[in-house]
């Protein structure tokens, strides 16, 4: 009977029970670079220059499966491997991204999606500042099955 009661709940409530326990409403300022912290590049991934990157988390779901934050980087060219699904929205500057045989120039206002496992080359001519959203299915799967 308990299972029947559970299954009769609206989908969004079931989804919240399974996937978003411990999550709550959060808000972050996507215009402030204050609080951004430096992150190291793996030396083998740097192809040209001395790019410096920084990031900060704005919002994080309770299970760690979804995160939004800010990231910036100075001039350089490097390989980037996506360990989760990522949507980027360029807020300032530009980056030229190559995935396989396709090259795209992302500028202020550009939005792009990179699926988990994507290998890419990033060329930052001067500077780029982006808002990102990550979806990582691993935390939920580990919690449910492991």
Overview of the structural elements:
This protein is of the alpha+beta class and about 150 residues long. The model has no long low-confidence stretch (mean pLDDT about 85). Strands 1, 2, 3, 4, 5, 6, 7 and 8 form an eight-stranded antiparallel β-sheet that branches. It has a single domain (about 35-145), classed as Jelly Rolls (Sandwich), CATH 2.60.120. It is about 15% helix and about 50% strand. It is built from three helices and eight strands. The protein is globular, with a radius of gyration of 18 Å. Strand 3 (about 55-60) and strand 4 form a beta hairpin.
Radius of gyration: 18 Å
β content, as a range?
Answer: over 45%
Number of helices: 3
Compute the average pLDDT.
83
CATH architecture: Sandwich
CA-CA gap between termini = 27 Å
CATH topology: Jelly Rolls
What is the CATH top level name?
Mainly Beta
> Total domains, how many?
1
* CATH homologous superfamily placement: Jelly Rolls
Order of helices and strands: HHEEEEEEEEH
- Approximate helicity band: 10-25%
The coarse overall form would be globular
Organism: Marinagarivorans cellulosilyticus
Protein name: (S)-ureidoglycine aminohydrolase cupin domain-containing protein
């Amino acid at each position: 009977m308990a299972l029947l009661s559970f299954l009769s709940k609206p989908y969004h409530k079931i989804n919240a029970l399974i996937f978003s326990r411990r999550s709550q409403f959060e808000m972050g300022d996507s215009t402030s670079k204050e609080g951004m912290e430096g992150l190291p590049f793996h030396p083998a991934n740097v192809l040209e220059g001395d790019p410096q990157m920084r990031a900060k988390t704005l919002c994080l779901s309770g299970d760690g499966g979804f995160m939004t934050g800010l990231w910036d980087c100075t001039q350089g060219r490097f390989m980037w491997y996506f360990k989760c699904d990522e949507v980027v929205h360029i807020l300032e500057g530009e980056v030229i991204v190559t995935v396989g045989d396709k090259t795209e120039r992302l500028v202020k206002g550009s939005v792009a999606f990179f699926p988990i496992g994507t290998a890419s080359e990033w060329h930052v001519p001067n500077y780029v500042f982006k808002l990102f959203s990550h979806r990582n299915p691993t935390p939920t799967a580990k919690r449910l099955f492991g």
